[in-house]
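Before a colleague's protein record goes any further, I have to sign it off. Alongside the sequence sits a line of tokens, each denoting a local backbone shape. I want your independent view on whether this chain really folds as the tokens say. Where you disagree with what is written, explain briefly why. This is what I was given:
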Amino acid sequence: MTHKLTALSAAILIGFSSLTAQADETCASPYMAKITGQEDFVYVWTLGAEGVGDEQDKLVTISVNPEAKDYGKVVARLSVGGRNEAHHSDFTDDRRFLWAGGLDSSKIFVFDVASDPAKPKLAKVITDFVAKSGGVVGPHSLYALPGRMLITGLSNNKDHGGRTALVEYSNAGDYIATYWLPTDSNLQGAIKSGHYADGYNYDVRALPRKNIMLTSSFTGWSNYMMDFGKMLNDPEAMKRFGSTVVQWDLHNRQPKKIFDVPGSPLEIRCAWNEAHNYCFTSTALTSKIWLIYEDAQGEWQAQAVADIGDPSKVPLPVDISISSDDKTLWVNTFMDGKTRAFDISDPFQPKQVFEQKIAAQVNMVSSSWDGQRLYYTSSLLANWDKKGADNEQFFKAYTWNGSELKEQFAIDFTQEKLGRAHQMRFGAYSLYGPKTAQ
């Protein structure tokens, strides 16, 4: 019954989500409450680093409103105990709680960001994710559905490989269901359109108006917890990367079609315009932009549409961000520390129009809805970050005028004894009524 109600709620919101064109982060779930103006904070989910501060994972809150007296400063840091391979985080649909996962411990930390947006509180820790889910390891993307959080796993507790699942929870933190990715031995009714049905997972995004959900694919625990250099020189390890994007029925959580997308497709970003029925992803190992789109017959297809840098040098594309007008795709490449902007006015022919080096390494990029602000962080994975002087750990804020990125401020996370800055989410007082703190 609860599953049917969830599907009904999603169906009701199909039209609603296509009409609410005001949003903040352009990667946000369409079901999520939105910031309609200037964000006040960026929450950075941060990996603890040995010998740096208290060495614990933490949620770091940074003031980013230029009108605030503490603009450009860390206003709160909340340690969660130990190092869990902190990775991704996201809000519930009502935006009152921020869920953050650990890829190694498989713990999920739930922060109350509504009581005081400037000083989040740790409200709950989910410690039985593996047991409840039936063996899923490595909670990665946390994606808001009506009253639900949908979580992509990266691995499993049987062989620590890439075979994994989607896991659904209620906003209250109660386990609901596990949906295993289709494989050659169990397609679960899905159509295999190419060579692969690997069962791997990474990111999840939805286009509610089309009743479609897409998942991408990465690698399992045995790889993402391995030293990067060692893994690159291990032929067997390099075979253990995903090569698929899966199309799902959003409402009943059933896989429908499996696309070949070789080279480990990571983040998925979907167009916002209600007439634009497509999403983008990028492949880490083959350095390509892929378009997942609905064709004239109403069928979904996958097509490589552009190279990112020089693929022969494996620049390692990581995070991507689509602009709210569907005209620009930002792509970060970890190895050369660059961010690139592609003109995607024609989604079948992206053209690079801008390039800038952010640092020795760069991972995540978050774009404001108006396209005027971009934020960058540095850490990929604890064992994959660069070593020595190139292990720069930072948060950087930029403005963008359509042709130039201009740095506004930067915070050195090592110098401030914070750790490795990974993923970002925006916060604002305007979401919760009168300011509770200043």
User: Anything to note?
Assistant: The CA atoms of residues 213 and 253 lie 8 Å apart. The longest strand covers residues 136-145.
